[in-house]
Write a structure and sequence with these properties.
The protein is of the alpha/beta class and 546 residues long. Helix content is 41%, strand content 17%. The strands form four sheets. A seven-stranded mixed sheet has the order 12-11-13-14-15-18-19.
């Protein structure tokens, strides 16, 4: 019986440790482990030798149910080895790392007394000395593993490094000799290789570092990395490729990802590259979720095989939000001239056209003058209001750097009476920094997040503290896209869904204080846009304008 229990213990430890991966080589932190009583001897012996060899202390705790509940609520443990199923404190756990349901069987050559089936089932999840004496051997076992690590994101790498070193030791010849000396069953190579958590999951991340503001592309990548750190139970490897925001380079990235056998792709950044690259991903059955591509053609193209998704809503959703804002402004402000400014991209041109059409619809009973301007070079800013143009309202479809330059130019020309509306690409802390107090009162379309939620505040803090990145709409969508994909991968690996696309179409995802789900095309069902107004250097969401 000890032999069988040892297999449960050692396999449990191995599984929990396989779930973590890091290359961080700093001083390793102690491992705080709670365990079941029957595993005590083995766990103590292995951790003692590991501590001696690696100079890492392992703080072991045997806890009663009540004590364990309190520890989980306080999240003072790194991991728990044992079974929390069907107990009052399962809701307190932070994350289930792995689950393998294995039922006990009768060892007939030793059984002398019959035990009722219901009693056997009642005790099937626990070590029961009486059933062993009566001839029952746990030839099959229950294995449940729980991560209970701290919410402090800055410690995640160090904790995972400790676990990574521990698993290397567990699988070493020295550790297996200790297992044998205890008259327990050592792990076999076959048993270790059966653990799916050992598999490296490759994710393609194409971003246009060479064509747009490098800081913006980096902020998206940082947000994706932050999302990945929330899934330490999976050996995620991000393969980054610079697609230059050009179709030919995007196709090169796509071919590279295919050769690397990626599980999924988070990208591309703009609609043109996303649409063209998606054809290759679909052909090779690779799931793709774009953080920022809004053109309808991406998800509404034929024969997508349910493999394409986007974290951002399509253009018409943003157009509706902008028009709703204009309708509200009309009630208190006379608007006879509106200037539409784009940055010359497919996204900007398409959204500008939709906004123009909608403006004409809401002003159909009165005359409205529409002016058009395109910002393609720095010189373009000098001619924004040339030839006596004086609109009451400017709508800019583009990025935050161009928006900041326009706002600064308007301030220089003392056009404080002009209302400025920026598309979601202008939602960035950097815009506020570049414009100082000149952006107060500006309206910005952004992701419809709960900026007061605990998750968003933690995201913002860690992004700045760990990655030195500022908040931006594109970074938020990158975090959403990564969270959605990684959650779907986790659900599929745990056997809840047959495929990743099925999981993505079925799950209601939680990200930054809101719920995201997809329609049959792979578009978010609910609009992710909201209206913000900059006030004293902060984005304030206008709850009555959505």
């Amino acid at each position: 019986m000890k032999n069988v229990l040892s297999f449960f213990s050692i396999l449990t430890v191995a599984l929990i440790l396989c779930a973590c991966n890091s290359n961080h080589q700093d001083t390793l932190k102690p491992l705080e482990i709670a365990y079941t009583k029957s595993d005590e001897k083995l766990v103590k012996e292995l951790t003692k030798n590991f501590a001696r060899k690696s100079k890492v202390n392992s703080e072991l705790k045997f806890l009663s149910n009540e004590e364990l509940t309190q520890e989980i609520k306080k999240q003072n443990l790194h991991l728990f080895i044992g079974n929390l199923e069907n107990t009052a404190y399962t809701k307190c756990r932070k994350k289930l790392i792995a689950k393998s349901i294995l039922r006990p069987q009768l060892s007939t050559n030793k059984a002398k007394i019959s035990i009722p089936e219901q009693d056997l089932q009642k005790n099937s999840n626990e070590y029961n000395e009486q059933t062993v004496k009566l001839g029952y051997s746990r030839l099959k076992r229950n294995i449940y593993l729980y991560e209970l690590s701290s919410n402090n994101e800055t410690e995640d790498f160090v904790i995972n490094s400790s676990l990574q070193n521990f698993i290397k030791y567990i699988q070493s010849e020295e550790a297996q000799k200790i297992v044998s000396q205890l008259k327990l069953i050592p792990l076999t190579i076959a048993e270790i290789s059966l653990n799916e958590d050992l598999e490296q999951i490759k994710i393609g991340v194409p971003l246009p570092f060479s064509s747009i503001d490098t800081q913006l592309a980096q902020s998206v990548l940082d947000s994706i990395k932050l999302a990945a750190s929330n899934f330490p139970q999976r050996n995620l490897k991000l393969i980054v490729c610079d697609d230059h925001s050009k179709i030919d380079k995007a196709l090169e990235c796509a071919k590279y990802f295919i050769s690397e056998k990626v599980t999924g792709v988070i990208g591309h950044f703009n609609s043109q590259t996303t649409i063209e690259a998606s054809k290759l991903y679909i052909k090779h059955n690779i799931v793709q979720i774009s953080p920022c591509s809004t053109h309808p053609w991406f998800t509404h193209q034929k024969n997508t095989n349910n493999l394409v998704f986007r974290a951002i809503s399509i253009d018409n959703k943003q157009s509706e939000t902008i028009i709703n804002l204009i309708s509200n402004l009309k009630k208190t402000k006379k608007i006879s001239t509106i200037m539409l400014i784009n940055n010359g991209t497919l996204f900007s041109s398409n959204l500008s056209a939709q906004v123009e059409t909608s403006i004409k619809e809401i002003y159909q009973d009165s005359k409205i003058k529409l002016l058009h301007q395109s910002i393609t070079t720095k010189k373009s800013y000098q001619s924004i209001l040339d030839k006596g143009a004086h609109p009451e309202l400017i709508i800019f479809i583009g990025g935050y750097i161009d928006a900041a330059n326009i706002i600064n130019k308007l301030h220089e020309q003392n056009h404080k009476d002009i209302t400025f509306i920026g598309s979601d690409g202008t939602y960035s802390d950097v815009l506020i920094k570049l414009t100082n107090n000149r952006s107060n009162g500006v309206y910005i379309i952004g992701a419809n997040i709960d900026s007061e939620s605990k998750e968003f505040l933690e995201y913002r803090e860690v992004l700045l503290k760990k990655y030195k990145s500022k908040i931006s709409a594109d970074g938020i969508y990158g975090y959403d896209a990564a969270t959605i994909l990684f959650t779907a991968i986790e659900a599929q690996h745990n056997g809840y869904y047959k495929s990743i696309p099925e999981a993505m179409h079925s799950i209601k995802f939680q990200s930054l204080g809101r719920e995201i789900s997809f329609d049959k095309y792979g578009d978010p069902i609910d609009s992710t846009y909201a209206v913000y107004q900059i006030d004293q250097g902060e984005f304030k969401k206008l709850k009555h304008m959505r």
